[in-house]
Amino acid sequence: AAASGGGGAGPCPLLLLLLLPGLAAAPAGMLQPRDTPSRERRELGGLWSFRADLSPGRDAGFAQRWYRRPLRQSGPVIDMPVPASFNDITQDPSLENYIGWVWYEKEVLLPLRWLQGDPAPRVVLRFGSAHYYAIVWVNGVQVVEHEGGHLPFEADISSVVQGSPGTLCRITVALNNTLTPHTLPPGSIQYMTDKSRYPKNYFVQNIRFDFFNYAGIHRPVVLYTTPAAYIDDITVTTTSSDSLAVVQYQVSVVGSTANSLSLSLRDQEGKVVATGDGPVGELKVLNPNLWWPYLMHENPGYLYSLEVKMQAQLGGALLEDLYTLPVGIRTVHVTSSQFLINGRPFYFHGVNKHEDADIRGKGLDWPLVVKDFNLLRWLGANSFRTSHYPYAEEIMDLCDAYGIVVIDESPGVGIKLPESFGNKSLQHHLAVMEELIRRDKNRPSVVMWSVANEPASELPPAAHYFKTVIAHTKALDPSRPVTFVTDANYALDHGAPYVDVICVNSYFSWYHDPGHLEVIPLQLTAQFENWYKTYQKPIIQSEYGADSVPGLHSDPPLMFSEEYQKAMLREYHSVFDKKRKEYVIGELIWNFADFMTNQGTTRVLGNKKGIFTRQRQPKAAAFVLRDRYWKIANESSCLPPVITSHSLFL
Question: Which residues form the Glycoside hydrolase family 2 immunoglobulin-like beta-sandwich domain (predicted)?
Fold first, then answer.
């Protein structure tokens, strides 16, 4: 697929980064900003000033130093909502497919209490995500740069704002959505040199993944404060038996060596059930309420609150910091044929999703998020994969609270070219896994890491690449299994030996033998048997499905009709029902909802494999899946068999 960005000249727009002074990000915690008695947070959502750099080399903003003064003083600006993708907001077709640098700016007034005191509080600027490469200035001073479009980054801006006259804080962001063979996801810039067919300096962004490369500040931007000495990071792991759970914790503090730490674990009624002190230790909980997935327990998603309190002497002042972390007590274990949560077999009956919607693109949108969770529970889905990148923290919070199980996937999609398996790509992939685990390590909903989707794992370099990425992931977090999602032949896959669970995508009677539903039972059965015979590991059907244009009908079923989508699902389900008695541990439909892609002859306003439309209206296949998922839930639940799709959630 290719997204065009006209008018480029010279080198790839992203290569300009090599000329810029970098700020190395220090290893630190990435605790989600929360209001506490010692911390304040302020969201900066709303309208920001915006300009795309339309200069031939996309470099006018740096040459003219747009960050030195208000953006409006260096040229025209337009209003741009944050969070949102910029692509679909205007009527300008050049912005829809723009490749290169865009500039955002927001001016805010800070409370005086954030700027004064002895010691003054620490002021931090945090971005939930910005796609893809971001450089940030505050009052003209560069404070951070970050590569990667789906994970948070932040900067301590205390010295900048507390050293500036007045309380004005001008935040400037330069953002570049160019993808190269070494980004994650990868891509490439192709210059069209045939002047008889293309305008001068014309280039396109080539990508090897099937969703639109939306760009912008996609998640909330937050200013928050902490005391000058503060709780920097918390790590928890949990184990449990019939009547006793152990919460192991590790707390890091920055800013003072002389400090005291106390911890209290509270249940949902506010009762303290365990206490501890010191930076490392364990909390023992008698008769714990375990964190259970949706439909496995009458009270799914049970969360305790871990209150961490720090006191530190800094100069002549006694500082106190308080942070509260939600904690779910649960265990995960994988055998050769089962996936166990809290010692009980768990079957993934869920979906693959995208962060995608009309107008806002990949921007976080609360009404859409809540609607999607209501649809998931209506469907009887107990799980989803964050295809094909980490999702917003706000979405993950609801998974924890609702008991929706998550396969947490990195942005490693479209790794197809041999050069994307080299050391430069590998080092970046390792860094991304560190960022992802740092963010989501404490989430009970996250039961497995996925390091990639449909890479060219049949290539010989994939063996070292995935052995290294998976080993690194396990070293960072030994408590969870690790996988990647493959569409390679079972006999040729060089990465599969290193995963804990086989996740396989297949589209029999769609991309293979299109229109021939009758081949599904034979081909799907052979797929499962070949993978299991080779690796003796449990298998998830991580993608399957068919496009359907809503309202298009055909009987007998023909491709792209709602009837064909239903018929394909039923053929797959008949094989799933045989194999889930053996070693198949899950099925994830592709896709939850229709989503936008690049334009192409096989895509009519995007990918139509959703069981819901892009506007979240059900197609016929949604009702097929709903009946199936509730039936499976009733078969496997410990609850009385009176559960129906109506009695638990409407």
Answer: 229-330
